[in-house]
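Troubleshooting log. The previous run stalled partway through. Resubmitting the same two chains, unchanged.
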Amino acid sequence: VGAIHVHEFMSLDGVIDAPTWTSDYGFDPKMGEAIGAVTERSRGILLGRRTYEMFEPAWSNRTVEDDPGAPFFNDTTKYVVSGTLATATWRNSKLIGPYDADAIRKLKDDVDGGLYVSGSVTLVRAMLADGLVDELHLFVYPLTRGAGPRLFPEEAGAGTLSLAACESYENGVVYLAYRPQT
Amino acid sequence: LIYSAIASLDGYIEDTEGTFDWAEPDEEVHAFVNDLERPVGTYLYGRRMYETMVFWESPPDPADQLHVAQDFAKIWQSADKIVYSKTLQNASSARTRIERAFDPEAIRELKATARGDVSVGGPELAAQAIKAGLVDEYHLFLVPIVVGGGKPSLPNGVRVKLELLGERRFRNGTVYLHYRLSN
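Second attempt completed without errors. Output:
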C-alpha cells in the first residue's frame, strides 16, 4: 500500500501560493538532500493541474547534469488530478480525472511505495480535509505573506500529528516533517 | 519588543471554540519558556490575554504546582504589566497599569527606556504592534496539532521579512522557532 508524501514551500504564516518568493533565499544543498530522502521512497508523483503545468516546462528538458532531481520528475509516473485537462504531454503522465477521494485511495492501494506531492494547493487541501495525507514535509521560509492560499483548510482535518523531523538551514529555512498520530 | 506565542501547526493560538488546552506546555517546554521570559521587564497585553495570564498572580495552590509553574509565577509577578483595554476598570494584579489606547509612539518610548525586555502577548495587540513595525523578535512555538480555525498567531494582511536565529524541537513534538526582524 502506498503513502502520500506532501512536500511544500510554506511561509511562516502558512501560505503556499506559487513560491516565487523562495528565490530570495537560494537553495541549500541540504534541502535537496531532505527532498531526496522523500523522493527516493516515492514510486509515483501526484499533482494538481496547475502545478503539473508549471512542472512540465521546468523539468521536461532537464537532465541529471542540470539538476539531480530531474530523473525523478521525468521518469516517475505522474498522476494528474484535473477535470479539464484533455491530454498530458509530459512523458510518463496519467490523467486521473477530477478530485475524488476514493480514486486517490485506490491509487494509494495500487502504487507500491510513496506518492510524492508538491505544490498542488487545491489537491493538498482536499486530501488534508479527507485525511489522505500520510506525511507532511514542510520547508518553512522566514517571512510572512499576509494573504494567499494556506496549506491547512479551515474547519477540516483537525487532529494531532507527530513530529518526524526538524532541522534548519543556513538560508533561514526550517524543515519540519509530520505524520498523523496513529 | 518581543512577541511570544504558542500556536497550532496551522497557525492558531486558540481554536474556534476559544479553547487552547492543547497549547499548554509540558514541563520541558515550560522550563524553556521560563528561561525566555526571565529577562522580560514589561508585558503588554490585550484585555483577554491579561485575564488569562492574571492567573499567575495567585496560583490556587502553589505547593501543588510543578516547580516550573511556581518559577513562572515568580517571573510573571515580578514584571510590570500594561493592559490595553477600553473597558477594564481595575487591574487585579500588582505592578499593572491600564491604557485605553494602543499608541505606537508610547511603545517606542517604552522600548527605548525600559529595563529588561518588553513582551507583547495576545494576537490582536500583537497584530497592531507588528503592523506598526514595533516587533523586533518572535518566539513561536508550534504544537503538532491542526485545529482547523480560530485566532491566528500571525496577523492577516501583513508581510514581514525575518531572520532565523534558532530552532529547537522538544520531546512532545513542539518546535520552537526564533526570529528577528530582517533589515
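Takeaways: Chain A has a mean pLDDT of 95. The interface with chain B takes residues 12-14, 128, 140, 142-147, 150-163, 166-168, 172-174, 176, 178, 181 of chain A (CB under 8 Å).
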